[in-house]
Amino acid sequence: MSLCMSITWWTAASSSRRPEAVEEAQNFKFWLKEHLRPEVEVGIGFYWDPCWRDHAFPVAAKAFLEKNVSVGIRKQELYRMLHIEGLIDPSNITRAQVNYWVAEIESCYYGEKDEDQMRSASNFIRREDMGEKGFEQTLYEDNDEFQAFAFTMPFWKHGRAVKKLVTDSTFKINAMRLEMFGMMANLGRFGVPLSYCFYNKKVNVGDPIPSQYQMKRLRKEVLARWYRGLYERDLQSIFLLTDKDVGQIWAAKESLPNTFVQLCLKHSMDAIEKRMAAVDMRTNPYCAKSAHETFDFIDPAWQTFTDDVVSGNICPEEYRKEVKRFFKFHFNAHPLIPDLMGYCLSQEEVHERSVLEAYSFCKERGLIQFWGYLWNEWYSHLKWQIFSRVSKTILSMSRTTNLVESHWQKIKQDYSHAMNRPRLDHWVYIVSEKVCLDMSIKLKQFLGRREFPS
């Protein structure tokens, strides 16, 4: 069996030097034959003249983009339209070039590019025409410790009086890698964004790495300032749904005194499922004596220790389905919802029955580590006020933060799909001029009851 090797010998030499190039190639071929096995066949092909092409973007294509970019046509469609109109040659002009010029043209709409992306975004939001549209900057801070930038949307005048708000965060959506928080109002059939906040903790070269406690404390303070700015602008919400983010929870509790913070059911279920499936994790110390002082049916002798390390899962797989069942039931419990006998329990009775069911389940199966986790993270008096819905006399029908999560997904798929982490000022332009416009049209249809059959 013979092996073949093909080599392309490329040279940009003039025609007068071609004989020398051929001789060099033949010498290289003989050298290969000497150092390879004899049965290997070496073939050399010549590619004399490189094919130089003019990759400059056509002027007519630029004019076409300037005319159609502001309409909101997707970049894939623009590339196809340029080809159909005969303005570009697809074998020479790539899709990436079209994306680049679209970004350059859009940058003219939000002003000159500043090296500081956050300052450029702030200047764009504070423009007079943006203020007339209803945009308002509520937070701007850029110091040695952190960066923070927040603004409200034109929907604020409609959404600030909505009783149920939803907040969540996302990452890696802009070039500065700022963590982004959003607050949305549920108008019954769809959600509209009320405010956005960007945050980043600075870690300068040579500075000591901050502890987790310092980073969480600073993050909570920034979120509290964002919430406080919204509260000062007449935020009237009663419920605020969030994920199991301690910083967001305590920042909202401190800055929104009239708002009840409620956890997202989906995030809560994901958290407990992840903990049940975890392997070899150290558990936080559980004080049975303190739990017994709260509920006397808890055995003070059934105790975990500080240095306990669980080998394997703290909850075997055969028990997890039942745990998720009663956990979801406890999450949804409320004094306004009667039990199986038709009685409406008080807040204290709902808490006691929930703890009794979870405790009895773990005690009968010897799941001391799992019960310690449930008590510390969910069923203690402090965590129960966050986890449950019983501490409010009214009941919210919203249970998840899917409203914000679908909003992030729609922005990434429909508006910034062809841009890998655009500049912050460009991202703010997309949200303010494209996302806001589409949602304004949807809001007019909703307020005019066009969504309903005529």
N-C termini distance: 78 Å
Q: How many distinct domains?
A: 4
The low-confidence parts are: none
The helix count comes to 17
Estimated helix fraction = 40-55%
Largest sheet, in brief, is: 7 strands, mixed
Features of the shown structure:
single chain, 454 residues, alpha/beta, Nucleotidyltransferase, domain 5, seven-stranded mixed beta sheet, two-stranded parallel ribbon
Q: How would you portray this structure in words?
A:
The chain is α/β, with parallel strands linked by helices. The chain folds into 4 domains: 4-47; 59-107; 136-264 and 401-454, Nucleotidyltransferase, domain 5, CATH 3.30.420; 266-399, no CATH class. The chain is 47% helix and 14% strand. The protein has helices at residues 18-35, 59-68, 75-84, 95-107, 117-125, 128-133, 156-159, 212-232, 246-255, 265-277, 288-294, 317-332, 347-365, 368-379, 381-387, 402-414, 424-447, and strands spanning 4-10, 41-47, 136-142, 146-152, 164-170, 179-186, 191-201, 239-242, 260-263. The chain has a 7-stranded mixed β-sheet with strand order 3-4-7-6-5-8-9, sandwiched between helices. A two-stranded parallel sheet has the order 1-2. α3 crosses α4 (95-107). The radius of gyration is 31 Å and the shape is extended. The termini are far apart. This is Transposase. It comes from Riccia sorocarpa.
